[in-house]
Structure formats: structure tokens, C-alpha cells
Amino acid sequence: MFQGEFSNNMDDKGRVSIPAVFRDTLKSHHADERIVITRSPHTRHLVAYPMREWKRLQSRIAATPPSPQLRAFKRIVLGSAQEYTPDRQGRVLIAPAMREYANMERVIHFAGAGETFEIWDRASWDRQLEADLALARDFELGL
């Protein structure tokens, strides 16, 4: 499970290091370092899927009846999907179109989201977190 928050600087070429704890989770829980990074269809950030989770998503998409919403989802998510294997320094090269979509500048923020993790521009993350705090104020799990 991916959990926690981490920030790393992106270099001028668009390379950023995946947090070591996330790389460790890929190795220990998924037995595969490969990830698929794609656009989020909900807000302007990226989502990283371990290969097993990516294949699970593809199966769910294939089992969903055709609709205009599904076509839009596929354009956003499948159309931008790229497979990555982090290099020896744990870096991946985020494509320019993906960086533009997520408004990525220099400081990149990683947030665990359970079976996936999110990749944000730091300023966008800060704004989203403030909005989430307002939404979650009255939410309880009922445990």
C-alpha cells in the first residue's frame, strides 16, 4: 500500500525521483518496479499505477459498456498512459505534455493513495489539500 507524502525536485529535463519508500513498495508488494503514469480524470495531477493495478483497471474498462463518458475517460487516462521503469537513481522522465497537464514546475509532490500514488505540482497539491480539508471536515468513517 502506498502511503505518506514526499516532495522531490524535478530537473530541467523533466526527470524526478520516485520516493524510495514507494520504490520499496513496488519491489516488496508488487514484485515489479514498472509503473504506468497517466493523467487523472478528476483534477490536474498524475496517477502512478503498479503494473498489477494498471492491468486491473484495463480489465474494468474492457468490461464497462460503451458510453460517451467511457470514451472521455479512455481519452484522458489511456491516451496519456506511459510505462516507466525507474532508473538506477529511481528517476522517471515525465513527458512534457504530462507536465503541462499537471502544471508541474520544479517541486513535485508525491502522495500515497492506497494501491496507487499521485504526482502533483507542489503548489497545486497545497491548494487541493486545503479544498480537501474543507470537504473532509464533517466526514467520519463510522469506525
Descriptive overview:
- It is a single chain.
- The protein is of the alpha+beta class and about 140 residues long.
- It has a single domain (about 5-135), classed as Chemotaxis protein chec (3-Layer(aba) Sandwich).
- Helices cover about 40% and strands about 25% of the residues.
- The strands form two sheets. The chain has a six-stranded antiparallel sheet. A two-stranded antiparallel ribbon has the order 2-6.
- The two termini are about 20 Å apart.
- The model has no long low-confidence stretch (mean pLDDT about 95).
Terminal-residue CA separation:
20 Å
Q: How would you name the oligomeric state of the polypeptide chains in this document?
A: single chain
State the CATH architecture: 3-Layer(aba) Sandwich
Low-confidence stretches: none
List the helices and strands and how they pair.
Elements: E1 5-9, E2 15-17, H1 20-30, E3 35-39, E4 46-50, H2 51-62, H3 68-77, E5 82-84, E6 91-93, H4 96-101, E7 107-112, E8 117-121, H5 122-136
What would a concise description of this structure say?
With 143 residues, the chain is α+β, with helices and mostly antiparallel strands. The protein contains 5 helices and 8 strands.
What attributes characterize this protein structure?
single chain, 143 residues, alpha+beta, Chemotaxis protein chec, six-stranded antiparallel beta sheet, two-stranded antiparallel sheet, 5 helices
